[in-house]
Amino acid sequence: MKRVRWGILGSASIAKRAVIPGIKESESGEVVAIASRDLIRARQTADELGIPVAYDSYEELLADDSIDVVYIPLPNHLHKEWTIKAAAAGKHILCEKPLALNAKDAKEMVDACNKAGVLLAEAVMYRYHPRYDVIRDIISSGEIGEIRGIHGTFTFFNPMASLSNFRYKKESGGSLYDVGVYPIHAARMILGEEPKAVTVHSFFSDEHDGVDMMDTGLLEFNNGVALSFDCGMMAAGRNTLEILGTKGRIEVPSAFLTNIDKSDNIFVITMKGRDAIRKEVEVPRVNQYALQADVVSKSILNNTPLPYPAEDAVLNMKVVEACLQSAKERRRIEILEGSND
């Protein structure tokens, strides 16, 4: 099989510990270069991870004709700039979530990539795990009945990390951007529709440049169905999803982050009744970062559409943007259909 050649724009932690190893494990991709504004850091990362070429500027990597696709793990406020520059250089793009800081910027990124004829994918790795195909099949079969609600969580405790980290900068950080995007996306994916309104209550920390360190929210969908969620960078760690139906419920204990050395490939179905029936469903243990890389690489090789087009990231960003507005203004926000402003 022909292999797609990847370049990495930056040496962020997520790139080094998850995405680059995932690409290297994939069937159809190989990492051929990495760039950093610090050449020593680029070379150290290249040596650690067996990457052949290290560049001391992003521009140099984009000028490398041997590279087919770039992965962008840069801070959130740099996603738009370097996605558009990568598109202009003719590179396909996997950009870390959130794709942009707002829906308008995300739409501009999508338009630039469409104009350049390159693929743009948002790095939302969990959705490629095979358990979600199984879960959606179970829901479609009617086994748990009609969906009445979804609850999602994604929290971790790291408030003492360097305050220079972009997560704790007002221009690009906060919990909704960092982890809230996941339960929001999951509800949209499972229900196959967009929420009509959101209400979010947040803790904004002055110590962390005023970003939202904890959020609790409600997304209103059709037919009285809602997503309730909480996310945060200042709470005990968890990442869970519960889908509640009229006949039963599905619980995913490790909904977004998985460890193939643990039982993170298992989810639980509980059926209601006098004698509740509980069964564990096991799916293959996989590296979802490798699956993500293969999806992007194979779309490039086969010239086929991505299963989740970049426009999905624009829609998710509309919801995140409404959540931030609700938290700041302390009120319910209706999401206007067709608007990216």
TrEMBL record:
Keyword Transferase: no
Domain of life of the source: Bacteria
Coiled-coil segments: none
Domain Gfo/Idh/MocA-like oxidoreductase N-terminal: 4-121
Pfam families hit by this protein: GFO_IDH_MocA, GFO_IDH_MocA_C3
InterPro entries for the chain: Gfo/Idh/MocA-like_OxRdtase_N (IPR000683), Gfo/Idh/MocA_domain (IPR050984), GFO_IDH_MocA-like_dom (IPR055170), NAD(P)-bd_dom_sf (IPR036291)
UniProt entry tagged with the keyword Oxidoreductase: yes
Keyword vocabulary terms for this entry: Oxidoreductase
Annotated Gene3D superfamilies: Dihydrodipicolinate Reductase, domain 2 (3.30.360.10), NAD(P)-binding Rossmann-like Domain (3.40.50.720)
Domain GFO/IDH/MocA-like oxidoreductase per the UniProt entry, residue ranges: 135-251
Family: Belongs to the Gfo/Idh/MocA family.
Protein name, entry field: Gfo/Idh/MocA family protein
Native species: Metabacillus endolithicus
